[in-house]
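Quick look at the format.
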Amino acid sequence: MGNRLPLHILSAATVLLFAATACTRDDLGGGTLPEGKYPLVIRATGLQAVATPASTRATVDGDWQGVQTVALSVGGTVKEYDVTASDADGYKTAILSSDTDPFWWTSREDITVSAWWPYGTTMPDVVVKEDQSTKEGFEGSDFISAEAQAVQFDHPMLEFSHRTARITVLLKPGDGIPSVTGANVSVTGLGTDNGNPATIRTYAAGSDTYEALTAPQTVKVNTPFIQVDLGGGAYYFRPQNDVVLEAGCRYTYTVSVTAKGLELAGCTIGGWTDGGSESGNATDLGDGYTVSEDGNTYTVYTDDGLMAWAEAAQGNPSLNCTLTHDIDLSGTEWEPVGDRNNVYTGTFDGNGHTISNLTITKENLSFGDDCGMFGRVGTNATIKDLTLESVRLNVGADGIPIGALAGSNQGTISNCKVSGNIFVTNNRAGYVGGIVGCMHSGVIQYCHSSASIQGGNSDYVGGVLGGEYATATVIKGCSFSGSITSDNAVGGIAGHCLYFNYMTGCYSVGKLSNLSTTAYRTGGVVGFLQWGSEATACYWDGFDGEGVGYCNSGEGTGAYQIDGTTHTWQTATEAMNTALGADSEYIWETTDADTPPTLVKNR
């Protein structure tokens, strides 16, 4: 059969020329031709003349490679034709012929011919290979055909076209990613009709260039489409519009991998047939996380990535986490990270982002089941720059600490915000807080809660902290603007304090309600102060009562009500900032005497 070379990757329209080599046709008369004298022989050429556009070439490299036989169908009869590659007249050509059972010209009338590759007695379905990472796998996934075309005796020609769509990914390093060397690229999110793969491993066709052939189909908007595995993380591009993968079209995506994921630098379709285009940015990042080389830090982009970190942190509570996008946990039940046997000791950096709809639904929790986004936070841990929005905690408990951000804390919680609902039942001898349930040392600073808290019969409930016990804690620059309903000690900032002297520059405008005979233990700043220490520049408004609900050892001072005369929000802001100090990371800022302040960076 001669030199047989793989074809597989063809241009958009491959031209095959039929030639009757047994005679000079101009010498033939009309009418019937003697059968057996004029076999149908096919000459296929790549048309590689310099002035010829690349899109008319027979194949990408001008060779018919890998096509050993093709199927020809005339009048419903299918025959197998051999392929022989050769060079002629400066063109790379292929001769298609059959020595054993050819078709014959019987007249000069046009005939209708269909042809296809790979060979089969019927035209096969397009079913590409799942693993196209090798050249053989890639080229072996192409399907070509010329369907029901009229062929003239004097000018026989068939125009072949691809039955597959071709995807080319040009991968580039972006911000925060020095190199994409060693990346694995897949095309995913594909339909599985006729047994096609949902994911295809691409062929590394050149330096940071990856290719795959797919069956024609539509990839829906926001479906994970191009997956890049690099540096222990998985990145996805999700198209901003439906991607219609048409037969014979080539889709080229230039994709930059950045520390924030995949950025689509450009999308053009050409080389085969122009099937349209799309441009935009890759904003969703698939598995949603990468892991640092030392394995200690997760960089998280999506809800799946956050859940992956949380699962890993259950086994290794020292794992750090940094968010790069807002995350919505709707429809997901959260399991607190860290408990009394494995306290969380890492750094969780919200990086200014928001986690919304974090939900915990628990019944009959008991000692050790500290409950919140974090169960128990250890002395070396840091949680910072995070907003929890629309938190939903519905907890039945017996004597445990409960807080939206942390059940208990001995580390540092800084610049965090909480909104949502906390509903607790059956928690006698328990602590409930809008930010933290209970503290045994540690720091809460520059935090705000607007949560609605129903503490049930919990002993101590506070807008920021349920209570602190045994050792001194630090609460500074915090505020509360939500509501609390409970049966025992209720405080705008803290439900219970042993050591009050480390509460500095805080305020509450929350709605406070104590439903029991212990209503005297409700305070605008602290519900129950066990020792008569002094707060520093703490204020409250919106509660018609004392700043400290009850103190069993003298009167606690340093808590003041905004009365519009002696103390306004303007004078309170000045006093709180003085107490926080000139080197405070954040300070309070207000626009007028009647408006509570907000935290801003200390400039």
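Next, a different chain entirely:
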Amino acid sequence: MSASADHTWRFFRAGGFDQVRIETGADLVRLEKLDQKLWVALACPTSGLQFDAKTLALIDTDKDGRIRAPELLAAVKWTCACVKNPGDILKGESALPLAAINEATPEGKNLLASARHILANLGKENAPVITVEDTADTSKIFNATSFNGDGIVTAEVSKDATLLTVIADIMSCVGSEMDRSGKPGVSQLKADQFFAEAKAYAAWRDEAQGNTAILPLGENTAAAATAYAAVKTKVEDYFVRCRMAAFDARSVGALNREEKEYLVLAAKDLNLKTTELAGFPLARIEAQRPLPLLEELNPAWSDAVTQFLASTVRPLLGDKVALTQGEWEQLQVRLAPYETWQKSKVGTQVEKLGIARVKEILGGDSQRKLTALIAQDKALEIEIASIASVERLVRYYCGLNTLLHNFVSFRDFYSRRGKAIFQAGTLYLDQRSCDLCLAVGDVGKHALMAGLAGTYLAYCDCVRKSTGESLQIVAAFTDGDSDNLMAGRNGVFYDRQGRDWDATISKIIDNPISIRQAFWSPYKKLIRFIEENIAKRAADAENAANDQMAAAAKMAVEADKARAIAEAEKAKAAAIARKKIDVGVVAALGVALGSIGTAVSALATGIVRLPASQIPLVFLGLITLISGPSMIIAWLKLRKRNLGPILDANGWAVNAKARINVPFGSTLTQVAALPPDSQRDLIDPYADKKSFIPALLGIAAGLWIIYSILNNVGLIYDWSGGWLGDKREREKGVAVEKAAITNAPPAAAK
């Protein structure tokens, strides 16, 4: 895409690249014409940002969890069309003035009417503005209105008691749907479902009405069929077993169950609900034996057979005490039409109301009245549906300004007048405050990409014990040093709402923080190396002494006195030898220190012979030689420090190399400093007590260096008349001076 030729864009430079200024309504209207190569970002996530989540969800039309440039452009274009002056969007106001809505278009007219409808329902008929809070809670908006355009009517929609009872019956039988007011109600779909069920159920009941084939016992047929169904399977089993016994007498024992099965059953605590007992035959199996109905029954089935006798056998067959297979088949034939009719049952959802209530409802005009009420509510659908669009417009009007200045440009980040939407808060740790803190989901995954940013990053686990909340952040340290930063250090993180969290460093990506740190780094490393070696040598000596003492103690316990004395003498000799070794080590250290002193004195001698104007340059050169490489490496890395990988690791698509150079980095991390005009008391009552030994050692070293310098130039020899100093050094110095004069240019020799 190319920029529009009829519009002049203005840019500002920050972070090492040009960023567009979005300051006027014309900028917004023509934003889709701006080349997207000039945008700072092309996509961002909808989560983990300090921005209204509902607004981001509305912009994210494809619901993929990301805001892309086309979606943002569509939101800007729609909002500009809905307001009279697009420039008002850039004011970043917290409410939408009704006067700002463009009612010259049909959509704008509906939006304005819906906005006024919302305010009226909230009791704010004369309010000149509408806020996000006004549109956020739809249940509050529609709580005071009967009709809200959703096609669902509640029990409060009518004063007709009969209709209200029908609505309650409908919700009881087929369920309800939630009205926009937050109350349960009935839609046209639910109403149609209920009345269809009611009509089907009534027709099904009418089919059996007066039909003795289906209802041989009238209203008592249902009870007879229920008792019959309860024992049907067991009675069938009994008669089949009796027929098997008639077929082969040898099977009678097995059909009645073997004795060992009774023994197993007898070993248990029995009751009438025992599963094994219910599995035994209904009665004793004999060839051609009728089923007894009063006695000699399986105890687990006696109650069911008694009910079967009272409800089914006697009403249909008369007074019986036993039932033959023929009579059983006769019962099956008599109840078969009822069973077939039951299988064809429809309208079960309204059955619980009873046929009398169902016919009462169908006989009235409740269906017509309810349909009319639903249609009346539905008539407001177009107007009320615009309420969702009102919320969308209010959120865009109040939020697009911020989003554009954190997407198309990073004005909020580089201006330092506030915080960018990706900044989660501020971390206080090691006498510093870090403003560039981002919430992260997966530290390991984030670190893979963020490590390319060339920035010193500290990942922290944050918790609030009072609420049980937890989160993970990454903080960029862009000023100070890293001497006291390590995993496990604790600090305090303040989120954008001002809540404090306990923060603990869990992972560090090490990179240079500042040129100042790089300057002192070689000296600190040397001191650290010396301290570590001294500590290591002391620890080794202590461990060796402890081991020898332990060994000597063990030997004293286990060996006799003579051997102990011999070992003691041996240990004493070893101690003397070790002392000699230590003396040798001390001597070696003395030689090493002497060599160092000689080198220093030689260097100092060379410096003394230089003109006074060149001595500062020599010291500057030495410092540059030591600290220069470290500073150069740090400078090369610091100039490449980039915000992009840190954001990309969080799901952004940063379209520019957003640099964090040294001056800008110093604004992101504030190092502790005393307030202006503060008063300091420099007396520390707990300061380390001064010892004269270091001072003496320093004086001795200084005198030694001075003596070496004077001796090298022959002054000691001259001053002492040959009693002190080295004549060869004197002669060597004179020879060097003569050689320098001989080899010097004529002008210099003069």
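Residues 578-593 have pLDDT under 50 and may be disordered.

See the schema section for token definitions.
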